[in-house]
Write a structure and sequence with these properties.
By secondary structure, the protein is mainly alpha-helical. The chain has helices at about 35-65, 70-80, 95-105, 110-120, 120-140, 145-160, 160-175, 180-205, 215-235, 240-245, 255-270, 280-285, 290-315, 325-330, 330-350, 355-375, 380-405, 410-435, 445-475; strands at about 25, 30. It has a single domain (about 35-270, about 285-470), classed as Up-down Bundle (Growth Hormone, Chain: A), CATH 1.20.1250. It is a multi-pass membrane protein.
């Protein structure tokens, strides 16, 4: 199983520099011609090139999709009349502008993972980053709320391919118990963007009046220009899938690429890419596990997006902080979330557990939400914001690791990544609706919705972990073979 891709490489790749057969063992237990120190250097090189690059791009992605709240309190709401209820309904124009992004963002995610496999991550990801940066600049020149909403629809279409492609790409490079920390670092960079976005937005607001443009417009224009720049840099820094990496940019040589492929094959036996089959790709939908992961992600993103879109507004309306203070007070909870996130990723990888990590994060939300909603003072409620932000955001890489550990097969993995993130987009729709302007200043319906999502996640994790435990026991007794997918058995077991 560990040598499924040998035919792609020269025969002398099986020997070291003096023609001897390799006798060293990797940390996973298969033969390799690299010393343990060399193996670590290869992995760290991939970390620096891959994880950091996609993390920085995700940083700007998250900033671009959530800077609407910063612009809202910087004058956009008043200038574009966004607080007006749409056609007399209970939905404000601001909620519609946030909502429409997720329509295209959700619909176009499943085909995106097939496209990125065809075009390659460098070509696909760098193009869509540059393109949505241009859309962001256009948002800075919107004259009415309808134009802003239309640009948000296009933004959702372009960003739809980014997150699931990154989740899929990272899962192809790392073994199951390496990926938790990497997902955490990837998402931490996004959390730090959320932490700094308010401060950056406040700084850009000071350009108010320059070139005849109000401050909120400069938020979109400057951040859009930065996005386009990073997209161009990303073309040179991004790496392709492992089976393509020996053909491009030579950041690893062919022997090192083979080591990575053998390592993934030894872990779960699915490094070999099968020809695309629409039936097999869509046939993955029959697996109930995929929808369990998707619902976990939906519940998590409902809470995290609700915070991302409404936290500055809640800080001003509910807690009484000024605009400048609210923009800056967004940062500390996200910085705290980054610490919790990496700690949970590290513990999950070290002890090879996933479900308990998700449960712990949801418990943080269930403790923090009542404090945030019913605390007796603004300081106490702000403490609740720390717990909710840490729990909800830490659960995003935790949920990604949970599904990555328990899925085999390249196209099933691609479908699962798209479905997971697609339901995350639906969670974004829900998150953009839960804190309604008519519920100010307490926002109790939104708090109840977030509490319900946290409780549902605990139930789903308990059910899936129990099912995995039973399946592992049957596999240990030889009664079933887990995630076979037409391949020889690799002794695969689910991660609880």
């Amino acid at each position: 199983m560990a040598h499924q891709d040998v035919e792609k490489y020269p025969a002398d790749m099986h020997t070291d520099d003096v023609g001897q057969t390799p006798t060293k063992l990797s940390s996973e237990g298969f033969e390799t011609d690299f010393t343990p120190q060399e193996q670590k250097k290869i992995i760290h090189r991939i970390d620096r090139r891959l994880v950091v690059t996609v993390g920085v791009l995700y940083c700007i992605s998250l900033m671009d999709r959530t800077n609407l709240s910063a612009a809202a309190i910087a004058g956009m709401t008043a200038e574009l009349n966004l607080n007006v209820l749409h056609n007399g309904s209970s939905i404000s124009r601001y909620s519609i502008v946030t909502l429409v992004f997720f329509t295209t963002y959700t619909v176009f995610q499943p085909p995106a993972t097939a496209i990125v496999r065809k075009l390659g991550p460098r070509n696909f990801l760098s193009f869509i980053v540059v393109a949505w940066g241009a859309v962001m600049i256009g948002m800075g020149f919107a004259d009415n709320w309808q134009g802003l909403a239309a640009l948000r629809v296009v933004l959702g279409l372009l960003e739809a391919g980014f997150f699931p492609s990154c989740v899929y790409l990272l899962s192809t490079w790392y073994t199951r118990y390496d990926v938790g920390k990497r997902y955490s670092v990837f998402y931490i960079l996004g959390s730090l963007a959320s932490a700094c976005a308010g401060i950056l937005a406040y700084g850009l607001m000071q350009l108010n009046g320059r070139e005849g443009l109000t401050g909120w417009r400069w938020i979109f224009i400057i951040e859009g220009a930065l996005t386009m720049f990073l997209g161009l840099v990303g073309y040179w820094m991004l790496v392709d899938f492992p089976d393509q990496a020996h053909k491009s940019w030579k950041f690893l040589n062919e022997r090192e690429v083979k080591f990575i492929i053998d390592r993934v094959n030894h872990d779960r036996g699915d490094a070999k890419v099968e020809p695309f089959s629409l039936g097999k790709f869509l046939g993955s939908a029959k697996d109930p596990k995929i929808w369990a992961y998707a619902m976990i992600f939906f519940n998590t993103t409902t809470v995290s997006y609700a915070l991302a879109y409404f936290l500055p507004i809640i800080l001003t309306v509910n807690m009484g902080f000024g605009v400048a203070a609210a923009q800056c007070l967004v940062a500390p909870p996200y910085a705290f979330a980054a610490i919790v996130m990496y700690t949970m990723g590290y513990l999950g990888d070290k002890y090879r557990v996933r479900g308990p990590i998700i449960a712990f994060n949801m418990l943080l939300c269930l403790i923090g939400l009542p404090i945030m909603g019913w605390g007796k003072s603004a300081a106490v409620r702000y403490f609740g914001v720390f717990l909710v932000t840490a729990g909800a955001n830490s659960n995003i890489p935790a949920a990604m690791s949970y599904q990555a550990n328990n899925i085999r097969g390249q196209w099933k993995r691609a479908f699962c990544s798209a479905t997971l993130v697609g339901f995350g987009g639906i969670g974004g729709i829900a998150g953009s609706m839960v804190f309604r302007s008519q519920d100010a200043p307490n926002y109790y319906p939104g708090l109840y919705a977030c509490i319900a999502c946290s409780c549902l996640t605990l139930i789903i994790v308990a059910v899936t972990d129990f099912a995995f435990w039973q399946a592992n026991k049957k596999a240990d007794r030889g009664e079933i073979e887990l995630e076979n997918d037409g391949d020889a058995s690799t002794g695969f077991r689910y991660t609880l």
